[in-house]
User: What shape does this take?
Amino acid sequence: MGRHLATSLAMAALAVAQLGFVTPAFAQSPEAAEAARRVNISGRQRMLSQRISKAACFLHIGAQTPGQENELADSVALFASSLQALRRGDAALGLGPEQSTDVRDALVAVAYDWGAFSEHLQMALDNGVVARPALAGIDASGLALLEDMNRAVNKTARFYGDSLPDMPLILSLTIDLAGRQRMLTQKAAKEFCLIEAGVEVAVNRARLAKTSQIFSLTLGALQSGMAGMVLAAPNEEISGQLLAVASAWEAPKAALDVAARGESPSDAQRADVVDGLERVLALMNEAVGMYEGTIPQ
Assistant: This one.
């Protein structure tokens, strides 16, 4: 199993630069632009929590390629710097210090979780090897981090959606949901890997089935809309991007469903998960940046 994933991972390594931001295509007020960027960066933090756990799992099963080691270290560095930016501000990202007390408190909880998560990661970062006990701790603490990061994202989306006249709440919530799709790609890949590694197989099969279902349902909602909850694709550019996501999602979803049913995936299906989900992540990340540019003046 490790050899097959190592081959795919060497081909699929995604540079951190691809997890950056798409420049908005439309004019928007500075306040709304900053609010949308906050929701975007906060949502990316959810993805990074699961991307780190996924990379650690791949290292555990022996898929130790230079690209995979870099993915783990780079994702850790990006999470840490982004958390600081969300709390204290970062001029390069167009962020000032967080103004909402509720959001600040939520980010304090995230920082506490991040400390625990980082301790579990230390072994992997020090010597590039993830022992089985460390893998279990990384997964558990990563899920705790994800839960609190999700609260922070939701509070951010609602606070700025409620307080800014040119940042409609439904758009803020839609950016939140679109951003969550990035996390689901990494959570699904991690769960797939844990099944392959023989870690809590029944639990992770159930989790994987749910993760895959949520991605598909959310993608449909983003395309067609959901009254009062999700904005339908607001322009042709985003509509086309979501169609590209849907097309890229087909192959990895089929492979994920095989693993969730308890069947053994083929080598080609393993490659579909490793390579295909990176493609879905990149496309979905571009889509989130496009939503930022839909804010009216």
